Amino acid sequence: MTSPTPNTSRDRYMVLNAFTMATVSHLNYGLWRHPADQTHRYKDVNYWVDLAKLLDREGFDCLFIADALGQIDVYGNSPAPALKHGIQSPLIDPLMLVSAMAAATKSLGFGITLSTTYEHPYQLARKLTTLDHLTKGRMGWNVVTSQQESAARNLGLERQIPHDERYERADEFMDVVYKLWMNSWENDAVIRDQSPAGSGNWVYTDPGKVHPIHHDGKYFRVPDAHVSEPSPQRVPVILQAGASARGIDFAARHAEVIFVVGADAAGTKANVRKIREEAEKLGRDPASLKFISAAAVVVGETEAEALEKFRDYKTWYDPIGSIIHYSSMTGVDFSQTPTDNVVTYRKTEASQSVLSQFDPAKSGRSWTLAEATSPKEGFGRARTFVGDAKAVADQIESWLEASETDGINLIQIVNPDSYLDFARLVLPELRSRGRIRPQAAGTLRQNLFPGLASGIPAKSHPSRCCPNS
To answer: What is the Cα–Cα distance from 158 to 335, expressed in whole angstroms?
Structure first.
């Protein structure tokens, strides 16, 4: 089968997400020490509300919040390095933040990370239905299977479930939540008939239109109906980031927005095409998938100002912190590895794609540990664009074209300055080029996929297999 046409699912508007975590440092290793950084306020609800209001006002599509469920303890076989360096630690639950942010915003979507390994589908379905109601249809779910051994130890397992089995379990998990969201309640089940007192004819919900799902599988038994009535989207927008062989299959089967990685534009493009092709084999419309990658931006009024700011940020950057995080993601303890050693793939039960992207056999060149985790021209593994507004917009457009991606997850280097600078300088330039979609009052799914007539997934999505979809 030939690869789908590169532009099949790409419209002129780019997907623009802000990418962060409910912690003191995420991908911007060491920058919590910068005098202008406010990320230490992550425990303050006003910090999150202010950030959401900024992103909503400036037309961002979504605030994408990563999460993890255990301490980072692979590097040196101890949590001490991560604690000392402030790497993804300490950490709070991002799900608790959504209601406050939603109440202060109108259009901004919220992509929250939740694990199929440590949640139960019946409970998760209610949580996300609730938030989809409260946000008026602006919820997205970043589906992960979790990669940390520490999470397994502290959440009831003797050891981490093997990588491929986690995905097998996740497939069944998705089957259950799709049935709950799409097959349990009919659209007109809630009647709210307020007949006069004494008549005995009042009805809130028609019992005949609420159906048990009768799921009895290998990992889950959920016999009864969903406890919540359908939300505006029914199914939150499905976000996912898997690029191992099993992860690609999962993404191609379920995801609508895919957070894709690659050592460079060519590697990223190869992964995009692979997932598109696999989705097509599974009967999905390639136009129903969009791809994003992590990016950092350092912008100034002039190129000289941007370069000076870049040099300043670099003085605060923590390359050891990047390796600590990379160890956790890959499951490989790099604490005793010289930074000039070439990174090669080895099978682990953690994120296989994050390690394999730099393997010479896949990337076409050799990457030292230092080059992979702390490139001179950037911050960590996020693509970094530096310059004045026009130059940064040019670089973003070139990256989207070369990688065949549809948008970016914009990380903060210093928060909120990174988002403020981007909004003040880069967004007007991108708008003038027609790359930023007008703010809309629809659901998150309708904003990302304007061709959809309603907020529910596209017809080729597996959640649409059910009678009431």
So the answer is: 25
